[in-house]
Amino acid sequence: MDKKIEIIGAPSTYGQRKLGVNLGPDAIRYAGLVERIRAIGLSVEDTGNIEVPTIDLDKFNSEQNGLRNLEEIITVSNNLSEAVSKSIEKNHFPLTLGGDHSIAIGSISGVSKHYDNLGVIWYDAHGDLNIPEESPSGNIHGMPLRVLAGDGDEQLVNISNYTPKVKPEHIVLIGMRDLDEGERRYIKENNIKTYTMADVDRYGIQQIIEETIEYLEHKTDGIHLSLDVDGLDPVETPGTGTRVLGGLTYRESHFALELLHSSNLITSMDIVEVNPLIDQNNHTAEQAVSLVGSFFGETLL
Which residues form a coiled coil (predicted)? Predict the structure, then answer.
């Protein structure tokens, strides 16, 4: 890594219904993120949190066009897109701390304008490929990847005034174990490269990451990694709001990130869905920091 790593906090809880994930960026900082990166010998700058609308508990989870907290998420997405784009203009590596996974609408919108063919690795228990008319909940954190691919609410799809941000053939899903019917149909219709937990069991994480790299490296000019901590098993990462048992282990995830580091292909990253209000002694934030350390090249010897 020859770029300065720029930490950008996106403390938004508007994409889902549980308060607390907005505290995720500061929980990760408190767990020693900056110190961990500096100890690797890398240059890092924490530029703080983007501006996010103040939570009004009387209006929180209000539906706008069938989508919960739509106006607030549009604001967050625009603010984050601008911050991430400026980071790339400075030749920095933007590391965005969520917040719920709806923040990826903003982060990837800010990234993709700088690439002709951006690839996206979605490391998550969920596909986040819903559209409003098919969403069981109306929660926008279940929709960001579909929005980025050009489907969904027009205002969200056109964040930063262009669409799509990513093509389906440039997406790889890893860790899938909870998909809605519409998401399964969209994945099959668009032939999206998908690794379920059954695939992880069958092939092992090393083969999956190697295949992912081979699949993306020659048809993309940048790759964004969006890591949701609920991709890991909640036994190991309890501080997250949409838990699904049977996930990737902490050790598998470390190895996956070590392999991605070695590829030297990842050009930006999110880490999202850390909720300290439902965590145990900030354990999940500490896990997140350790995973980021592996991604940036931390080694035992």
Answer: none
For residue 56, what pLDDT band results from cuts at 50, 70 and 90? confident
What would the CATH number be for the domain defined by 5-295?
3.40.800.10
Is 298 tagged catalytic?
no
Q: Please name the amino acid found at residue 217.
A: E
Residue from 151, 273, 286, 298 carrying the catalytic annotation = 273
Tell me the pairing of strands 5-10 and 44-49: parallel
Q: Is 217 a catalytic residue?
A: no
Alpha-carbon gap, residue 287 to 281, rounded angstroms: 11
Q: Determine how many CB atoms are found less than 10 A away from the CB of residue 201.
A: 9
- Roughly how many angstroms between the first and final C-alpha of the chain, as a whole number? 18
Write phi, then psi, for 238 (nearest 5 degrees).
-75, -20
**Token pair of 80 as six digits:** 């984050």
| Residue 92 bears catalytic tag | no
Q: Return the CA Rg of the chain.
A: 17
Active site residue 128: yes
- Give the separation between CA 97 and CA 274, rounded to whole angstroms: 9
Q: What is the mean pLDDT of residues 73-96?
A: 98
* 283 is known as an active-site residue: no
Among 72, 100, 124, 286, the active-site one is 124
Catalytic residue among 100, 230, 252, 286: 230
Phi and psi, residue 275, nearest 5°: -120, 100
| Integer Cα distance of 41 and 134 in angstroms | 46
Flag whether the pTM goes above 0.85.
Answer: yes
What is the full DSSP assignment across 23-34? GHHHHHHHTTHH
CA gap 273, 186 in Å, rounded: 24
In percent, the amount of the chain with pLDDT more than 70 equals 98
Whether 56 is catalytic? no
Annotated catalytic, 82?
no
Q: At 8, is the secondary structure helix, strand, or coil?
A: strand
